[in-house]
Each structure stands twice: as structure tokens, then as C-alpha cells.
Amino acid sequence: MDGVEVGRISDAQLWRNAVDGDAGSMGVLFERHADTVYNHCFRRTGLWSAAEDLTSMVFLEAWRQRRGLRLSQDGSIVPWLLGLANNMVRNHRRALRRYGRLLAKLPPADAEPDLAEDASTRLDAEAEMRRILAAARQLSEVDQDVLALCVWSGLSYAEASVALGVPVGTVRSRLSRARAHLRELLPPASPAGKEN
To answer: Rounded to whole angstroms, how far apart are CA atoms 168 and 84?
Structure first.
């Protein structure tokens, strides 16, 4: 269908075609009336994003209720779409009120942490982890594995035994060896801002 031909087809005929499975007809109805529905929803909500969502919902609901379509006397689908839009706006407002009531029941939020302090803490933690990893990389791979599983991931000896496929006693001895070697490689870090 070209633009001139589409412009001559009534809403009623396009709707009948859409109900019969012609997706293109539904697309034409959307293109023809989406701005009207969108503007109506915006004027009812005052929110652009809500109007966009509601417009989509109106056309989805129109498709869901397609058997109950009531055309105006002049054969336009617009009054029916705007009636659906009014229902969608009311539902939207009810949902916002429910959401507001639920939020009001929540305890007040804790004070926001100081972002500069949080960033400083994270940088310090990253620097410390890099220092630890540099020392840990000097251990054998099997010692690194047991250290990562038992110390950093919190697995028990038995769980690490399953993960590594070795006896529990081997896990214990490797972990003991890894810790001792790591202590030798990793002198205590000096606290920030203090002299050694």
C-alpha cells in the first residue's frame, strides 16, 4: 500500500484487517494515532517517559481487546483508544500511589557515605591487594590455588580437597606452606601517613 492509498482506508477497515491478522494494518493505525494517544497521556501525567510507556500499553491493550472495539459514529478508533488511555493513566497513578505507600513504610536510608572517603578506601584496598598478589605470584601454582580457595574464598579443607582433587591432609600442608612462604615474602605494610 502506498501513502495515498493508506490515507483513504478508514480506521474501521484497517482494524478489521488487523483483527484478521494483517500486522501492517495495525502498524498503520499506530502511525496514524500514536501521537494523539501520546499527547493525551502526556497531558494527563505531565511525564514524557510515562506517556511513552502508556502509549505502548494502550496499543497493546487495544490489540488484546480487539473484539470489543467500539468505533465512533464517524468510524474513528481514536475515542476508543483515548478511553483505554484514560484507564491506563488511572492504573499508572494507582501504581505510583501504591509504590509511594510502600516506600513510606521502609526505614529511612542511612546517611550517604562520603564518596571521597569511599574512593580513598577503595584505592587503598586495591594497592594492598596488588602488593599481596605480587607476593602470592611468587608461590607455586598449587600453593596459590590452596591459598585462594581456603583463605580468600573461605572454603573448608574438605571443600578445597574436592575442588583440587587431593586429600585433605595435602590441602592442610600446602596451606601451611603457602602461609609461611607468604609471610616471608610479604613484610607488614606501613600504615598510610605514618613513618616506618
So the answer is: 67
**What fold does the segment set 3-105 form as a domain?**
Rna Polymerase Sigma Factor; Chain: A (1.10.1740)
User: What contacts 143, CB < 8 A, 6 or more positions away?
Assistant: 174, 177, 178, 181
In this structure, what DSSP letter does residue 165 have? T
Q: Could you read off the pLDDT of 48-103 as tens digits, one per residue?
A: 999 999 999 999 998 888 777 777 778 788 988 999 999 999 999 999 999 999 98
Which three three-digit cell numbers place residue 151?
Answer: 583463605
Give the span between the Cα atoms of 185 and 164, in whole angstroms: 24
Instruction: Report the half-sphere exposure of 84 (CA within 13 A, side-chain side).
Output: 26
C-alpha cell belonging to residue 168: 585433605
Q: Is the pTM of this model over 0.90?
A: no
- 8 Å CB contact between 157 and 146: no
Other C-beta atoms lying within 10 Å of the C-beta of residue 10:
13
126-185 belongs to CATH 1.10.10.10: yes
Greatest alpha-carbon span in the chain: 91
First to last CA, the chain: 83
Are 189 and 128 a contacting pair, CB within 8 Å?
A: yes
Domain boundaries, the chain: 3-105, 126-185
